[in-house]
Amino acid sequence: MRVCGTENLMSGEKIVLGVSGLFHDSAAALVKGNKVLAAAQEERFTRKKGDASFPVNSIKYCLRHLPKGCDLDAVAFYENPRLKMDRIFKSAVRNAPRGAPIWAQALRAVDELNRQLPKALLGILDDPEKLFFSTHHRSHAASAFYPSPFSKAAVLVVDGVGEWSTTSIWSGDRNELVPQGEVRFPHSLGLFYSAFTQYCGFKVNSGEYKLMGLAPFGNPIYEQKILDEMIDVKPDGSFTLNLKYFEFHTGVSTISPLFGSFFGEPARLPESPVSQHFMDIAASVQSVINQVMQALARSALELTGMNRLCLAGGVALNCVANSKIFLNTPGLEGVWVQPAAGDAGGALGAAFDVALQLSERPKPSIDKAIKNKDGMQGGYLGPHYSPVQIESALQRNRLVYTKYESDEQLCHAVADLLAKGQILGHFDGRMEFGPRALGNRSILADPRPVDMMSRVNLKIKFREGWRPFAPLVLLEESERLFEGITESPYMLLVSRLNKRFCTGPKVNDVRGSGVYKLAELQRSVTTEFNAISHIDYSSRLQTVTNESESRVYRILKAFHESTGCPMLLNTSFNVRGEPIVCAPGHAIKCFLNTHMDALVIGDFIVSKSAQESWVAGRVGRMKFNDD
Question: Where do the Carbamoyltransferase C-terminal domain residues begin and end (predicted)?
Fold first, then answer.
């Protein structure tokens, strides 16, 4: 990282704006010393999913949280454009003429940076020497380590590619991050997984989570074939790819024509039925990812001599692999995953890194069990809207609503609606930073009704009917409900439902049965909580406590008291292909255009049944993009 003029900055806690963007998931973050003041993704403001444009709106939002009377001490960009262009140019030349498209794309991105960065800094940064450029993987590593609960930890970053690094291991100690090893482009675990995402008919850079969700339906029959021919994995987790099967280094595609012939079947067309072949492919590549990530985790601990591990990079959003690390790594005493593990989190990491390098105070020692004791404030770092702003939006949309003066009354009213089987949009407090909705911008429902998963999938989210939802669980009840992992505040670990709640046939009795309608296959394995349980009884767990200071905890407590069920279905407040809602108007639009029964927004509850007849005409008319 280039650090200029530090002699004039070394005093007290520094306020730094971090910026990421121009590839995908642009974002901005504002930190003061080791505290996050604000962070948001550009897509939430522009309503373009995965928006890669320069994060003008996110920067404006973050600067509204600049402490009164204070100026920015520095601005940090999350990667080094010169090094990135060096890698892209060399790849383009090596693969000419096929590499021309990726070179052209990179030139456009650099031009955008050169035009937008000076505009963004005009009037907020008086000295160009206070502009710093980190590197992509250092930003990821900083985002994982500095807000973690640990004063010392190994850090593992695994993603597609930054400048040259695709996998890196770091040692974190107070204010220091020291690189210990790396794997370099074109050998990339993230791009390897994206290639399989494309082959299975899903969208690269957004459909990887679908590939992970498809894996439990299949058997890993191609695992050894992949390991023998496509990826050479060493005992320490380092790896090389057989590049004849991949095209991501040209920018044209992620897979070469040989990819389909190797597996004996061409790539699946998007939106077409999913055959058993692709279920087995998904299971096989997930098993390979699990193996590599576990080997890398072991190496990270051995190289650093640490017994705690922090994770970041897009592959760290693979909660199945994270859970394998958590459960199967010898000597591991703690794992913490950055909730915004993708490129958006790079803005936060770059800001933290510069702020702590320039500040005199070291990162404090926390080293406690992970019970929201990290520095991410539950992930609630985005915009907040006042009751006046919310009520004004309701009135502009001519909605009938009920205002609650007491939070306790509202929570019990919401619990009653949920107990009646209603599906609710919940909008309250600060928006989440990162890809997961953690309660403040969520759709909530009772997970027990047999038809709840299909209702939410098909009539609310407008997405594939086979995809289950995440459980929102009271931490104090999670050990009774789940086996193995029972604490996961950011929905980044997978747990398995306790056997006594699993009432249907064993997963092996239906897996590989050749049933191509995945929704029917999913429904054939039943539990007492069908809507949140996958075919293998796994769940992407989110646990909440009263320490989170989120209203969703109080709603869940009231629901538990009313029904005896300490769990709710939680999914992001959006429809397919759309970003999570940010502002009241976004929430109202989504509510009106879907089959949600009610909207809980700030201090207000809006029931669909109480509205005028014109509202009914809008339901189901919302357009969505492929995700």
Answer: 415-608
Distance of alpha carbon 316 from alpha carbon 320, whole angstroms? 9
Residue 70 DSSP symbol: -
| DSSP-assigned beta bridge partners for residue 19 | 28, 77
Q: 29 pairs with which residues across the strands?
A: 18, 39
- CATH number, domain of 49, equals 3.30.420.40
Are residues 38 and 144 both part of a single domain? Answer: yes
Domain membership of residue 374 (yes or no) is no
Q: Summarize pLDDT for 414-463 with one digit per residue, the tens.
A: 999 999 999 999 999 999 999 999 999 999 999 999 999 999 999 999 98
Whether the predicted pLDDT of 538 surpasses 90? yes
Residues 416 and 310 in one domain: no
Whether this model's pTM surpasses 0.85: yes
Token pair of 85, please?
Answer: 């262009």
Cross-strand bridge partners of residue 402: 605
CA distance 516 to 276: 7
Same domain, 292 and 352: no
CA distances to 86, 190, 198 from 243, in Å: 20, 14, 16
Q: Is 472 in the same domain as 499?
A: yes
State pLDDT tens for residues 291-304.
999 999 999 999 99
Count of domains forming the chain: 3
CA-to-CA dists, residue 505 to 214, 372, 527, angstroms: 19, 37, 10
C-alpha–C-alpha distance, residues 429 and 553, integer Å: 13
CA-closest candidate to residue 159, choices 172, 168, 149, 147 = 168
Is beta strand 231-233 parallel, antiparallel or unpaired with respect to 239-241? antiparallel
